[in-house]
Amino acid sequence: MKIAEVVSTFFPHFGGMGLVCEEESDGLSNQGHDVTVFTLRYPSVRYAQNLFLFNIERLFPLVKMGDAGLIPQLSRRLRDFDIVHLHYPFYGGAEWVWWAKKFFGKKYFVTYHMMASPSGLAKRFVQKVYDFVWQKRILLGAEKILVVDKKYWSALPFAKEIPEDRVVEFPNGVNLKIFSPGSADWNMIELKDWQKKKMILFVGNLLLLKKLDLLIRALAKIQNDDWRLVIVGGGYEEMHYQKLVSDLGLKNKVKFAGYCFDREKLVEYYRAAWVSVLPTDNESFSLVAIESLACGTPVILSADSGGANRITTKENGWTFVPGSEESLRSALVQSLSVSVEDHQGGVKLRRDSIVDYDWNNHNLRLEQILDSEYGK
Predict the structure, then answer these.
(1) Strand 83-88 vs strand 299-302: parallel, antiparallel, or unpaired?
(2) Ordered structural domains, the chain, with CATH
(3) What 3-state DSSP class applies to 22?
(4) Out of 103-112, 114-123, 202-211, 314-323, which region has the weakest mean confidence (pLDDT)?
(5) Of 92, 112, 87, 89, which is closest to residue 24 (Cα–Cα)?
(6) What 3-state DSSP class applies to 266?
(7) Per-residue CA distances from 246 to 216, 240, 249, 252, 254 (Å)
(8) Taking a C-beta distance cutoff of 8 angstroms, is the pair 59, 38 a contact?
(9) What is the average pLDDT across 15-43?
C-alpha cells in the first residue's frame, strides 16, 4: 500500500508525535509499504537527505505559529495515496487531510496523541475558534481513531460525540532493544559528580503545558540534599524555567541538559535516574513513561494521565493529584525514601510491565488495522 503519514513535527525537530511517526513509518516500510511523511519545513533549517527507508516531504507553510503551520498544498499531494494517516493535533495541516477526503475521496485515519494546551491568550483564542470549526469535523471524518489510552480519551470533552466503534485503544511503543536496564554511563551524560545523588529526570519540550514549574517548585520544598534534577529538552520556555530555578536558589541542584537526539545517550539518562517525572496535568501515556520503565526506572505522573491505571504504587511508580504541588512533593518524597536495594530489586518488575509495548508488536497490529480497513 502507498501510505501518507501527516505530522506537525518530525526529526530533527524534537517531539513525541514525530518519534511515533518515525517508528511507525520505519516499521511499515520494513513490511513492504511505500511510505511518505508529510511535515513542516522550518525556515533557515538545512535538512539531511536519505536518512530513512521512507520518503519525507517538508512543506513550506503560508503561516507558521509554533508547531502549527498552514499548508493548503497538502490536499493535492495526497491524491495518489491509498491511505492517509494523520497524527493529531496538527493545526494548519489536519483540515487539508479532511479536504482531501472531500475532494479526492482519500480515506484517512487519525492517531489522537494529546489535547493541545497553548500558552497565551491569543493562542488559546485561536485554538478555541479552530477547535469549534474543525476538531469534531476532522475526527468524525476519520475511518478510525487510534488513541493511546481509552481512559485519557474518554475524559476529553468531545469524546462522547465520536462513535465508539471508530475508536481503538492503541498505545505507543518502545524499542526494547535500545531502551533496556543496565549500569549508567555517567561520563557519557556528563553527570559523574552527581553519581551518588538520587537523580530526578524530566524529558520533554519545555512548553508551559508540561508543567515543569510544578516539579521545580515541589522539589524546592524538599529540604534534604539527596536529590538532583536533570532536564532533558529545550526551546520554548527554557529561559522562564532557568529564571525560576535561579529565583528558588536551586542552580546547584538543577542541570539543563538540552535536547538529546541520540537515543543511546537518552538511555543513559534513564538508567542514571532514580525516577522520571511527568508533571503535566493530563499527559497521554507518553513515550517518556514507557521508555523510562523499559530501562527499569519508575515514573511519577498525574492521576488523570493516560497510563495512570497501569501504575502500581512503589512497584513501577507513583501518581499525584493533577496540578497539586503538595501531592507531587509527597510522591517525590515517597520515591526518594525507597532504599537502594528495593530500587534495584524492582528493575525487572518495571521492565516487565511494558513488554507488550514493543514497537515490533505495535507495527504488526498497525498493519492489521490498515489491512482490515483499507486492504485491497
Answers:
(1) unpaired
(2) 2-173+358-374 (3.40.50.2000), 192-356 (3.40.50.2000)
(3) helix
(4) 114-123
(5) 87
(6) helix
(7) 11, 10, 5, 9, 9
(8) yes
(9) 92
